[in-house]
Each structure stands twice: as structure tokens, then as C-alpha cells.
Design a protein that fits this description.
Layout lengths: L9 H4 L3 H8 L13 H18 L2 H15 L4 H10 L11 H6 L3 H14 L2 H11 L1
Helix pairs in contact: 2-4, 3-4, 3-5, 4-5
Amino acid sequence: MNANTTTQDEPQCGVDWRVEARAAFPELESLCGAEWSVHVFLTELLDIVRKAHRDADAETLDRAYGFAKWCLDQPRRFLADAAIVSFYEHLFDDWELRHEIAERLPDRIAERVRPLWEWRLPVERLAEVDQLLG
């Protein structure tokens, strides 16, 4: 694929997320082809985030959370929605990482994703997430 090739996500995105993804994560180049969606990329990125939290790899965490935030900040909703449902919604699935994750989430992101956490997390876990983010 060259820079002039249009992918099926681009009309919905307004930007080519693959360019940003390749720049931030050249090691995930294989997931940036036209046959892969941003949802697949973000799901793989979430696995990388979990490992980076366990390894205290701040540089990888900065890149990963930066890419997810970049998606969330795009003017069209396609990438923002993808970041919410394929990345942020699942952050607390590895419960033992909750403290480290909470430290990296700005209030405005948590506010947008909280309704999904409400649906996914047991009441006591949601209360703890609220306390960690409060």
C-alpha cells in the first residue's frame, strides 16, 4: 500500500490511522495493512499496554496511550468510537493493573468511557475505579 492508496476506513475516519499507527508502533506494521481494521490494531495495542504496565515500560505506555488518545481526539467519530470500544472499554479487564491504568487516564476520557465500564464491571469494581479516578 502506498501513501496514495485509500482504505475503506478512511472515508469514515477523515485521516489514515495507519500512518499514525506505523509512526508510533513500527513493530505492529503487519497490523497496519488494508486488510486490518483499527479495531484489530487497538485490541493488539491493549495487549501491549498490559505487558508494558507489568514491565513498567513508560516509553511504550506513552506511545500506546498517546495513540489511543489521538484516535479519541479525531474530529470524526469513527476513530474515537473505535478507541472507546476496542481499547478504553477493556482497560480494567486485567484488574490487577487498575492502579497503574488509573494513573494514566485523564478525567475527560474516563467520563466518556464510564458508561461502558458501568455495563461491564461489577458494582464493587466500578466503585473502586471511581475512587481511583476521583
